[in-house]
Amino acid sequence: MSGRSAPEGPVEPAVPRHGRMPRHGAWQTYGKIAAAVVAVLAVSATAVVGYAAVDLLATAAVKPPVKLESETILENVPDIGAMEGGLNFLLVGSDKRPEDGAFGDPEEESAVLNDVTMLLHISQDHSHVEVVSFPRDLLIDVPECIDPNDPEGERLPELYGAKMNEVLSWGGFGCVAATIEQLTGVQIPVGGIVEFYGVAALSTAIGGVDVCVVDRIDDDYTGLHLDPGTHSLQGMDALAFLRTRHGVGDGSDLGRISNQQTFLASLMRTMQGSGTLGDPVKLYSIAKAVLSNMTLSTALQNPAQLMSIARTLQDIDLSKIAFVQYPTVYTEGFSAVVPAESAQVLNAALVADHPVALDPNATTDADFGTVTDPNAPAQPEAPAPEAPATDAPATAAPTTPPADALPPDVTGQTAADVRCSSANSG
């Protein structure tokens, strides 16, 4: 990304839609606040799900919040109870090196890039969730953005053909959100930034996340060394698994995204299957660990907003939680990727709030993809539906639309799918 001069001709931003999270009024007494359980959610290479007591607000306050322009849609709406309607949540994983030097010199090796950019879409009827990962080398247009170093001053100009992972350092978290809004057509009112130690702390608080490996993985860059089989990863091992690029798939960032999706799917199964979402003690420890490593948008400083998100997500069918890689094709020279034609199909489904159906062979057939767990038991065929009696009353039409079938070049998996990572043979 070079210079800050405005290119010729303005970019007309897409009209963002969707993303309203209602609230139900303020808490009545401090006693209720002190006794309440707060929820914190983020899904990514550093995904976060958890509750905590109100004193976690002090932990969250350690990191100043970031402000999103679209969070104004949350004003003057209720703030307690299960979330009504849908929501779009942006999670950014920053490669900013910690001050302790554990991942290299923070002054020399840290450019504050958004190497992980994920959009969490919760449907209006709470029947399905899509988690879309955007490749770090995706070439995109960036709209005018508020300058985080001078919020009241002149806006930063548009950029054309910039790499996705450069947007955070260019215009801050709000600019990343505005860029994803323009790219997809949805509106993003909330989100957060998480750094290296966040995922390590989360995976430890959960007690480990199971991952499946089909052949030995060796990556000296991240220190990841795994034999074939299933491993329960936590702490720095979990972080290495999510960071590895050279060790999995085809060694590309696309392979890393596919690898991260296997981890996130397992994380969701663990959270639902272990009863974590109903255990205040576990949720408190998770939230406490993650808030110390995460910067939330200002709208999420309200604990009621966090509680609403968690209450919405805890009962969604795992098969209705889809992790999708934003469809792209390589540029000449394979130095970057650009949106594929099928990206419009995914964008349309998000804007229309439709569930999506992934081609079951897409990820397996991709050079960078993961493989189906060879040890997973075969799924029984669903029984054929019985024909209704001739005098049976007509059934009401379903309120949730049928899933939009994504083209075969769109890769991903659901949280119910158990997939395994394969080693980079190159």
Automatic annotation (TrEMBL):
Give the InterPro entries listed for this entry.
LytR/CpsA/Psr_CW_biosynth, LytR_CpsA_psr
Residue stretches spanning the membrane: 33-54
Tell me any Pfam family this protein matches.
LytR_cpsA_psr
Which intervals carry biased composition (Low complexity)?
Answer: 387-398
Recorded superkingdom = Bacteria
**Segments forming domain Cell envelope-related transcriptional attenuator:** 114-272
- Region of interest called Disordered, as start-end residue ranges on this chain: 1-22, 361-426
Keywords on record:
Membrane, Transmembrane, Transmembrane helix
Coiled-coil residues are none
The UniProt entry's sequence similarity note says: Belongs to the LytR/CpsA/Psr (LCP) family.
Name the record gives this protein:
LytR family transcriptional regulator
**Species:** Agromyces mariniharenae
